């Protein structure tokens, strides 16, 4: 593989993972996977939540992919792309938005602030249904999200 192919694969995987994470969050975690994800929408004690099992599941999958990549190189680079996405995700979602692992940085302007607001609005809905903003790295405009939330009819 040329370096360009490797780079394209890694960057492509990071972008793909955002779409994949959005779909998984919306249709699986807020669908039949709610049992694990609920812990993330409710206050809880202790450093870990059941929702972390999703991270563990992905980690196991990625280790498998790295292993398979020893026989077929593109898989290894794809696995690297997923790992990078996981790293960004852990930083943005867990550390910046939810202030886990002792991080206390609250962005006051720019895109990071928008990300924070968008995900806070995702958490404004406590239940499984009717949420907004399922992505993590592409944050929709908070004003639009708020409008969407206010238009929501409670079942
Ligand atoms: Zn959620
Ligand atoms: Zn969250």
Automatic annotation (TrEMBL):
Chain segments annotated as coiled-coil in the UniProt record: none
- For the keyword DNA-binding, the answer is no
This protein's source sits in the domain of life called Bacteria
Keywords per UniProt: Carotenoid biosynthesis, Membrane, Oxidoreductase, Transmembrane, Transmembrane helix
Family classification: Belongs to the sterol desaturase family.
- Mind giving the lineage of the organism this protein is from? Bacteria, Pseudomonadati, Pseudomonadota, Alphaproteobacteria, Sphingomonadales
InterPro entries for this protein: BETA-OHASE-like
Q: Kindly provide the name given to this protein in its UniProt entry.
A: Sterol desaturase family protein
Task: Please tell me whether the keyword Transmembrane is annotated for this protein.
Answer: yes
Q: Where are the transmembrane segments?
A: 6-24, 53-72, 78-97
């Amino acid at each position: 593989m040329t370096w360009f192919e490797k780079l394209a694969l890694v960057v492509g995987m990071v972008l793909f993972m955002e779409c994949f994470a959005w779909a998984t969050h919306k249709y699986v975690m807020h669908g039949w996977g709610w049992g694990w994800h609920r812990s993330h929408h409710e206050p809880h004690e202790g450093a870990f939540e059941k929702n972390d099992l999703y991270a563990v599941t992905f980690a196991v999958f990625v280790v498998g992919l790295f292993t398979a990549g020893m026989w077929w190189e593109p898989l290894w680079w794809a696995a690297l792309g997923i790992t990078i996405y996981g790293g960004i995700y852990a930083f943005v979602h867990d550390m910046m938005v939810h202030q886990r692992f002792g991080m206390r940085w609250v962005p006051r302007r720019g895109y990071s602030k928008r990300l924070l607001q968008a995900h806070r609005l995702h958490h404004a809905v406590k239940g499984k249904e009717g949420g907004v903003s399922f992505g993590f790295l592409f944050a929709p405009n908070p004003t639009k999200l708020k409008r969407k939330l206010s238009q929501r009819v409670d079942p």
